[in-house]
Amino acid sequence: MIGPRARLILESTLAERVEFDVPLARHTSLRIGGPADAVITPRDRKDLSHALAICAQHDLPTRTLGAGFNVLVGEDGLPEVVLRLKRLRAIEYVAPDAISVETGASHATLTRYCVDQGLSGLEFGAGIPGTIGGWLAMNAGIGVREMKDVVRSIELMDRLGELSPPIARDDLDFRYRELAGLPEGSVLVGAQLQVEASERSKVQSEIDRLLAQRQATQPIDVPSCGSVFRNPPGDYAGRLIEAAGLKGAREGAAEISRVHANFIVNHGGASARDVRRLIDRARAAVAAETGIELETEVQLIGSFEGDSL
Ligand SMILES: Cc1cc2nc3c(=O)[nH]c(=O)nc-3n(C[C@H](O)[C@H](O)[C@H](O)COP(=O)(O)OP(=O)(O)OC[C@H]3O[C@@H](n4cnc5c(N)ncnc54)[C@H](O)[C@@H]3O)c2cc1C
């Protein structure tokens, strides 16, 4: 919990860049989540460094969120300082075969940039909503390609606000939907991604193909957090949940999607508790049918009705 004294310090040093008691339902794609004690939106890297240093100095726990497309925040909220990097969004072509991108840039901005510049290699990300920071932290991807295949290096700021020299991909521990081993409280600030020169029309048509495929197979018009569970080795979580008979199962306004059983959708007014109940039901049903213990891909953060995760 961020106490009154710490609030005063944040307010007096960060002015309009800090807000208090911010409902995270506003900042998550599921439209669910209690308030964060504070949300800081730094102007630039220097400002981010300053904010981290203040938080470290006063022992305030911090967490960086991207666009909230892969998180379920508890209804009791997040007793932490949330950092949002949406103003750190520079993108630059580093000829001949890389782009340098700040992690607050959105998937849509990056995709548009690649089309405009005729750069190929990142088309797979066109339908993966979020920020580049979220893509990196989650090693986001689709079957054939994920972030680890395109990252050359990353830039990391530690919890004290010190920026590291670029860290090469070979020194990073990318795993399935995870970039493991990041020091506690550190912030992904930038990355160099590999691209190759192509033609605008080719880049655009590959993006159109992937988006059409998604439109046909995923409930993209209803609030969700994407895949709720990781696929277990050799199988698909969605197939297992469907086979366990839970497609269309409901708790309140939350539903295991009828379009894709690894998605939970919010029909309006669902609570974190509704979603957790569906997660528990899907896990139990799949375990009972197959013995497989599904693990969540969505990040459960904050306090869920008394029990802190
Ligand atoms: C309709 C839909 C379809 C989706 N399809 C896919 C798909 O095909 N493949 C796929 O992989 N994912 C998919 N997702 C999930 C989601 O889009 C990705 O996980 C994406 O990378 C989340 O980015 P974000 O910025 O929203 O991250 P958030 O959800 O905000 O955060 C995710 C995690 O990253 C951490 N994080 C974010 N930014 C930083 C940073 N700068 N520094 C340190 N840590 C950070 C957060 O703390 C959190 O732990 C889908 C989601 C939806 C809603």
Task: Provide an overview of this structure.
By secondary structure, the protein is of the alpha+beta class. The chain has three domains: 4-84, Uridine Diphospho-n-acetylenolpyruvylglucosamine Reductase, domain 2; 91-215, Uridine Diphospho-n-acetylenolpyruvylglucosamine Reductase, domain 3 (2-Layer Sandwich); 219-308, UDP-N-acetylenolpyruvoylglucosamine reductase, C-terminal domain (Uridine Diphospho-n-acetylenolpyruvylglucosamine Reductase, domain 1), CATH 3.90.78.10. 28% of the residues lie in helices and 28% in strands. It has seven helices and 23 strands. It has helices at residues 4-14, 45-57, 107-117, 132-137, 200-217, 237-243, 272-290; strands at 18-23, 35-40, 62-65, 71-73, 78-84, 91-94, 98-102, 119-120, 141-142, 145-146, 151-157, 167-168, 173-175, 178-180, 187-194, 196-197, 224-227, 250-251, 254-256, 263-266, 299-301, 303-304, 307-308. The strands form eight sheets. It has a five-stranded antiparallel sheet. Strand 22 and strand 23 form a beta hairpin.
